[in-house]
C-alpha cells in the first residue's frame, strides 16, 4: 500500500488550484506515494472586512498551516510565496520554490480602460499598500479603496460597487482561467510586484529528508534564487508592519538583477533602484539593494510609515 502524503492548503479556489497543481506534479514524479489535500482556514481568510495592514501582516495566510505542519497533521504546506513571512517558524523550511509564472500585476477595468485612460479620480480597488503607493505615484488623482476577498469576490465587487478598476496578480487571474478579463498587464516601470509574487512555495519540516527529497523534484533553481534575493531585501527593510515594498529578481546566464522600490503610502515619495551580481549570491544582492535604497531615502520613508501604521493597527 502506498504511503499517503497530506498536503495542507487554504481553501480559496486559487489556493486549491495551486495545491492540486503541486499534487499532480508530485504524483507524476513520485508515483509510489498517494496524495491527499486538506483545506485549512487561516486568519486572513476568516477576517475579510478589515484592511490587511490593520490585522497585522505576519503569517496572516500561513500560520494555521504551519501549526498543522509542526503538529504532524499535514506533511507539506502549499502557499503563494508572496504570503510567506521572511522569517519562518523554527522547525520549518521552504522545500520548493516552484517555477514562477509572470510575476506582474494586471488591471481589470469595468469599461476596458487602461491605466493611462482611466477617468480623473478613477476608483481602483486593491488591498495592497504596495499597489496603492505605486499607482498613486503614477497618477495622484486615483482614488484607491480597500478591496479584500478571493479573486472571484473582487471581480464581483468591481461591478457591484461600481469601481472603475481592480488590480490583481497575473498569476492568480491566469491560473483560474480568467485571462480574458485582463484589460492590461501593468508595466513593471509603473508597478513592481510583491516579493515572491507568481511563485508557489512548498513548506516542510526541517530535517524531514523524505519530504525534502520529494519537494526537491519540483524546486526551480532560478525561481528560488530570484525569490531568495527579493525576500532578503524585504527582510532587511521590514519592521513589523505592512510596508509598500515591491521587488523583482530576474536570472539570466548566471547573473541576477534585482529591482526594488519603496514608496510613501500616498505615492508622493518613491525610491527605486537595482543591484546585480552572481545569481548564487542572491541573498547578499537583496541585502545590498536594501542598504542602497535606505541610503537613497527609503530608510526615512519607512521609519515615518512605521510610526504612523503601527500606531493605527
UniProtKB/TrEMBL annotation:
Enzyme class: transferase
GO biological process, one term: protoporphyrinogen IX biosynthetic process
UniProt cross-references to InterPro entries, sorted A to Z: HemC (IPR000860), Porphobilin_deaminase_cofac_BS (IPR022419), Porphobilin_deaminase_N (IPR022417), Porphobilinogen_deaminase_C (IPR022418), Porphobilinogen_deaminase_C_sf (IPR036803)
Keyword Cytoplasm: no
Keyword Transferase carried by entry: yes
Modified residues (S-(dipyrrolylmethanemethyl)cysteine): 241
One Pfam family in the UniProt entry: Porphobil_deamC
GO molecular-function terms, A-Z: hydroxymethylbilane synthase activity
EC number in record: 2.5.1.61
Gene3D superfamilies in the record: Periplasmic binding protein-like II, Porphobilinogen deaminase, C-terminal domain
Function: Tetrapolymerization of the monopyrrole PBG into the hydroxymethylbilane pre-uroporphyrinogen in several discrete steps.
Classification via PANTHER family: PORPHOBILINOGEN DEAMINASE
Family: Belongs to the HMBS family.
Self-association and partners: Monomer.
Extra facts: The porphobilinogen subunits are added to the dipyrromethane group.
Protein's UniProt name: Porphobilinogen deaminase
Organism (species): Pelotomaculum isophthalicicum JI
